[in-house]
Design a protein that fits this description.
The protein is an alpha+beta fold. It has three domains: 88 residues, Alpha-D-Glucose-1,6-Bisphosphate, Chain A, domain 4 (2-Layer Sandwich), CATH 3.30.530; 118 residues, Pleckstrin-homology domain (PH domain)/Phosphotyrosine-binding domain (PTB) (PH-domain like), CATH 2.30.29; 31 residues, no CATH class. Helix content is 27%, strand content 35%. It has seven helices and twelve strands. Helix 6 runs antiparallel to helix 7.
Length: 266
């Protein structure tokens, strides 16, 4: 049976302490074991546990310096569907505030999430990229499955709520034409128009869909930063014109006229 690879990205925030030591201490609180470490890597062994219905796995972390601290790219190699759960288990042993939370607690605090648990919140963090920031969050139904609906600064994510599940649907912000809000007896709905098709998330609690739709419009309405083209260097332009003259595209007179004009602008 072939193993499955899953990638999880953490950022240990600057000032939190030595990342290798922090992870080692977190692993010591579990039945996992640190197999080896170097200044830029750590390998963790997850033993097979029949009682816990858990296959064995090997977790390899590569450390690098990031903008907020130390980035760790984890690769979880194992059977079964508990790859993310392994990382949640280790993450729960990390000191409070030591990991980049991606703005998730703040987003959760703005809205009632009665069905949300601590592990689901940590599970969400494990599918985010380095530096990805969460703007709005909710719980809804897509394709008959309940999941966490998350709007980040890069994409809209639907992640199945079950910690044992790894089903993820995502829509890049650039591919979304519009997000329409609707209301039904069962709650709010979001219809996402993207790449010529659409998808509808239903049964969002009151205010959750509205918060996501409004934040999306705010992001889309933000003016795109533009860069004013820098005028080309006159000497470079003269060299380019000389090349056109040499190829017979410009006559000598045309070349001299444009050269005189460019030299006058210096």
């Amino acid at each position: 049976m072939a193993t499955i690879l899953r990638t999880v990205r953490w950022t240990v925030l600057a000032g939190s302490g030595d990342p290798i030591a922090l992870v080692t201490e977190a692993v010591a609180k579990t039945d996992f074991a640190v197999a080896s470490t170097t200044p830029t890597s750590i390998v963790i062994d997850v033993p097979r546990a029949i009682i816990k219905n858990r296959w064995g796995a090997t977790i390899t972390g590569a450390l690098s310096q990031g903008s907020k601290g130390t980035d760790i790219e984890w690769v979880v190699d194992g059977l079964g569907n508990k790859h993310y759960e392994h990382m949640v288990t280790i993450g729960e042993g990390m000191p409070e505030g030591s990991l980049d939370d991606h703005g998730i607690p703040e987003a959760v605090s703005k809205i009632a999430l009665k069905m949300f648990g601590r592990k689901e919140i940590r599970h969400l963090a494990n599918v985010l990229d380095f530096g990805e920031f969460v703007h709005a969050i909710g719980i809804g139904n897509l394709g008959g499955k309940m999941g966490i609906v998350t709007l980040t600064d890069r994409r809209l994510i639907f992640l199945e709520k079950s910690i044992g599940s790894e089903n993820l649907v995502e829509f890049a912000l650039a591919s979304i034409g519009a997000i329409s809000l609707g209301k039904k007896m069962g709650g709010e709905t979001l219809t996402i128009s993207h790449s010529g098709t659409s998808a509808t998330i239903t049964t969002l609690q009151h205010g959750q869909g509205d918060a996501i739709a409004r934040k999306f419009r705010e992001i889309k309405d933000q003016p795109t930063a533009t860069t004013t083209p820098t005028a080309a260097d006159p000497i470079e332009q003269i060299e380019r014109l000389a090349g056109l003259r040499d190829k017979g595209i410009l006559s000598e007179d045309e070349f001299q006229a444009q050269k005189t004009q460019l030299l006058g602008s210096i």
